[in-house]
Design brief:
Largest sheet: 6 strands, antiparallel
Number of domains: 1
Structural class: alpha+beta
Helix content: 10-25%
Shape: globular
Strand order of the largest sheet: 1-7-4-9-3-2
CATH class: Mainly Beta
CATH topology: Jelly Rolls
CATH superfamily: q2cbj1_9rhob like domain
Number of strands: 9
Number of helices: 10
Order of helices and strands: HHEHEHHHEEEEEEEHHHH
Radius of gyration: 20 Å
CATH architecture: Sandwich
Strand content: 15-25%
Length: 285
Amino acid sequence: MEQPIVPNLDKDYLELEETGGSPPAAQWRDAPRTSDGLAASLVAELRSAGHVMVENLLTPDQVAEMREAATAFMGPRGRQDFEGFNTQRVYGVMAHTDALDPMVEHPLVLDVLDHFLQVNYLLSQVVAINIEPGETEQHLHHDDLLYPIPRPRPPISVATMWSLTDFTEANGGTRFISGSHLWDGRLPDDDDVISHAEMPAGSVLFYLGTLWHGGGANRTDAGRIGVTVQYCQPWARTVENFGLSMDLDRVRECSEEMQSMLGFNIHSNLMGYVDGRHPARLLSD
């Protein structure tokens, strides 16, 4: 049987370039994005433990700007136990502000992601979260529960949690079970050791989509504000539908790499087309 011919929609870019359009986002990366070797050590720790933290990746000025932008759009408290009845969230935060763009496409983050997700990986969701005083522990879960594929297996998604206030055990720092990314289908039990992410504002916690984790209880008198940024394989469905939540003018403001992560690129020469053509054309028409 003859194999079907798969069209390569990247050739659309030749026409775009001739008419002054944007060139394609990089399809392959021959060298690390960062040069200090930190990404390699983070990748090793992620593979071993399923999580790793980097402190003070953002400057105090960046933290202040991002916290102000995120809190400006905080919604009502959660609608059910998982969201948290004493927790505020900002869904669709990327449509509201560009202040968080630097964390979404931070070079170190992307350098780490390159080792776990295939080229052209997607931004899956960005949610700002304020765990308020009195909130109880969120039940443990893993983000890849959304993809009903038996474990153990490699992760389909990778997440980051950025602290815009200090994270402590007392104020709701993210809880997780180290090594649980390697589990088969078993569930957490009372014998599992639960750790807490304790990190100063401006830090980031990486964790794989197969790691069991959850928000902590806030026993203090102040909120714990963080932003979770999640990414997924280029062939997986994203949690947030950015094609509907962000208008084209906002997408045009983003870098080409960000546009690709938002779905304005194709994978395997075809996946993600619009009317049979490369989706980047929507940004140049």
